[in-house]
Amino acid sequence: MAIGIRTQDLRKIYSSAPPLGAAGGFVARADAKGAKPPKTQIPALDGLSLEVEPGEIFCLLGPNGAGKSTTVGVLTTRVRPTSGQAWIGEYDVWQNQVAVKLLIGVVPQRPNLDFSLTAREILTFHGAYFGLGSKERNERANALLEKFKLTDRANQMVRGFSGGMMQRLSIARAMMHDPKVLFLDEPSAGLDPQTRILLWEIIREYNQAGKTILLTTHNMEEADALCQRLAIIDHGKMIALGTPANLKASIPGGYLPPAYKSLLLPGIIAISMVFTGIWAVAMPLIAEFQWTREIEDRLLAPIDMTWIAIEKVFAGMLQALISGLIVIPLAWLVLRPGVDIHIGSPLLFALIIVLVASFSAAGGLALGCSINQQHIGLMFGMVITPMIFFGCTYYPWNALEKFPILQKAVLINPLVYASEGMRAMLVPKFPHLSTVAVVVALVFFDILLLAVGLRQFEKKAIS
Known about the structure:
CATH superfamily of the largest domain: P-loop containing nucleotide triphosphate hydrolases
CATH topology of the largest domain: Rossmann fold
Helix content: 40-55%
Number of strands: 10
Number of domains: 2
Largest sheet: 6 strands, mixed
Strand content: 5-15%
Order of helices and strands: EEEHEEHEHHHEHEHEEHHHHHHHHH
Structural class: alpha/beta
Mean pLDDT: 84
CATH class of the largest domain: Alpha Beta
């Protein structure tokens, strides 16, 4: 028989000392009597009340820091609430912890597998915790390994597993004792699309067996695909509750208008190509020059070192082109119906694709030879993020008409021309920059970034 979940007025307050430099640069200090500095109170849950029906797939949707993981922690006996109550079936979580643990399975946000064990041992040891006999443990372990496509790695140590494999094994472990309620804390984070689809199928199948499932996510697509009902929470409070269809219908203008899908599609393709090219060149160069030093051997080859840099750019171009060829059909499949792609000039489209790929790879060369390893985070914060936001990927360039200074300023961003070029080629019925302007600008950025990149590469190579 399926059992439900309920919380009433849950509150959780965390206390921590204020960070150094807070309060305008002054740091709190103890007085002459040695009193401790005042502590900051951080509310993670603020009166959260939920009711999950037996046999339901229920989703907690919200941004990072909304209180989703804290809610799961309270319900799974790992986080003691400051006040309020929580029940699993008829059991009060904090009055009957052992009884509750027998009913639940938990998949944490990050895999916490024992690296000293094989995949099979992890499952059978977990089954033993819950009193399963040897025969039953082995049978269930074999079935779960097969279901999660891990049979061929069953007897290998998990320290060599990929992140996706560890996540699959974590979910299999949570199902090992066949719990009545399954908690999944952002289960698809970091998974590739194929593994994500496999996971969704397994979750649906488990639910059809009469199990109650509560999962957390900040992925709206996942919530829409899996959950029968969902609660949107932020700052520890529930701000909306209902079925995905009802919540989408409550948004003024609909969930995602077809016209916006058509505007969004070219931007998705542009951003995928540009950052694939940048990443494919910049990150290996940073590693090879500052960490592995692998490039030093290549620099001794009897050729002009410029050709080594050009080889890096060419490899990045190929990866960017492959990314575009993969993303175009995938993005169309995800965003349809309502998206009508029309390529008026295949040759011109091919030219723009190549120019976008080359400027992204050349940009990767320039960045990879200019950024120190310890400044990678700064590169994303100061270069990549503003480039995305002001790159006309999520909106057309003409949408900035009300801000004429900004509209002109963003023209120094090469991603603008990549997005507008894709828009001109794929959805020409929507406003876009002229094709001539796009091609000229992309050629200019190709030459500029390649020249800068080659110069920086030579400086890096010759101390």
